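Page 42, continued from yesterday. The earlier attempt failed because a stray header line got pasted into the input along with the sequence. Redoing it now with the clean sequence only.
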Amino acid sequence: MSLSFEERKKVILDILDLEGKVKVSDAEQLLNVSGETIRRDMDRLEKEGLLHKVYGGAVKTKQKYERTFEQKTSLNNLEKRLICKAAANIVEDGDVIFIGHGTTAYEIVRFLSDKPNVIVVTNSLPVLSLATECFQGKILFAGGEYEHRQKFMGGPLADLFFNQLKANKAFVAAGGISLTDGITDYDITGAAISKKLIERAETTIILADHTKFGVSTFAHICHLEDVSMIITDQKSSIQWQERLAQKKVELLIASEMLEDIHV
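This time it went through. Structure tokens are written below.
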């Protein structure tokens, strides 16, 4: 029985999610249809903005620039909040934790109200602002050069600040997660400070919603082998769990109901 367009679409997008690219010849074999059918499918998917056609196949559509912090706060909001709650659940009372910049990591402190002995260290102004409202533990804030679009501190002074500290866990948001390129970000300054957090922590936890998988952005943060765990939402492909397990990275799926998320 031949597959419908919607079924073929799912397979093509799953391959793109994992590999970042798909060849017409590979899809032709996998789906047992003609190359012409695959090319027509890719034409439709390109018009929907889901991929970009290249010679012999297609690649995943990439965001050419990073949206501002304010623009990103409204994207995948529930998924990010679920991810933050799952992240807070693995924090032990008494931990020292680094929370990096980015909207995916922003709300972790909201779910730490029952852990007053945690020390939060951050370079993110929104995290600092939220922590002063809802977190009772100690807060350390990195100085440095202020990055207006993403609202974080970076540069040599922030680097020096984190060099003096050591954390049990670092929670770092990713711009992209790729099997070949590892963890990436859109911005060199942001990637550099995320790299420093990872260097100074015993355990690294990457926070990323499903849209970040199979994506490689401008600046490299670290290899997948440097990561202990990735926390994502339940829209992520299950195949990522198998691929990451091969690299000794645990994939934690945040999947609670909206009613369980208390503001």
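Notes: The longest strand covers residues 167-173.
Reminder to self: strip header lines before submitting.
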